[in-house]
Amino acid sequence: MKFRFSVLMVALLCALTLGAQSLGSPRVTYARSFQGSVPPFFQIEVYRDGRATYAAREKAGMPLTTLSFTASPQALQEIFAGVRALHDFAGSTLQSKQNVAYTGDKMLAYDDDSHHTSQQFTYTTNQHAAALVSLFEGISVTGMDAIRLQRALQYQPLDVLQIMNQIEADWAGHQMAEPQLLAPTLQATLANPNIMDAAQKRARKLLQEFAKAKD
User: Fold this and answer.
1) How does 78-90 read in b/e, with b if 16+ C-beta sit within 10 Å?
2) Predicted confidence (pLDDT) per residue in 29-70, tens digit
3) What is the pTM of this model?
4) Residue 72 CB burial class (10 angstroms; 0-12, 13-18, ≥19)
5) In what helix (H) or strand (E) does residue 155 lie, and over which residues does it extend?
6) How many other CB atoms sit within 10 Å of the CB of residue 183?
7) Max Cα distance, the chain (Å)
8) CB neighbours of 157 closer than 8 A, spacing ≥ 6?
9) N or C, which end of the chain has less CB nearby within 10 Å?
């Protein structure tokens, strides 16, 4: 199977290889490139010590927006257990031979101070890899909600309520992972005097629900 990886994905792979030294903590990276989807590109980096970033292009041609967060202990356990089960992505190929609908070019990579390993695929039936993809895609839903809300707070405050409706739907539909990524933007919504009360009430409710879920 020929992969349709963009120049951006190739550049990312090179950057990961060059940056594999002196990390201070092992790192797992997931990236997906899918032109025509929203977002068309995103990448997530999670370090074993909990440091994490989400970076995405909301639309093709737009610059990357990067958000930093601290990964939850549960996510760290799931991610690095999956990496171990997949032999740091140095084991069997993750690409499935099944003919399925195209859902983007994906990459999983592992880096520590001694080596870099990665695999590229479009679809996998490996249960450990599929679980990682599901988790990272859930983080992307949260990250995109945060990016859209940040933009609305800055440029389009009248759109905040509509975006809050989508965030509530994502949360209720169990589409989001690592909601703490969104929490600072919700707190900024509460602190903004130009945001309507209805939107602030929803932000407050979501923060309360995030806290309950964490407990």
Assistant:
1) bbeebbeebebbe
2) 999 999 989 999 999 999 999 999 999 998 888 889 999 999
3) 0.90
4) middle
5) helix 127-155
6) 19
7) 54
8) 192, 194, 195
9) C
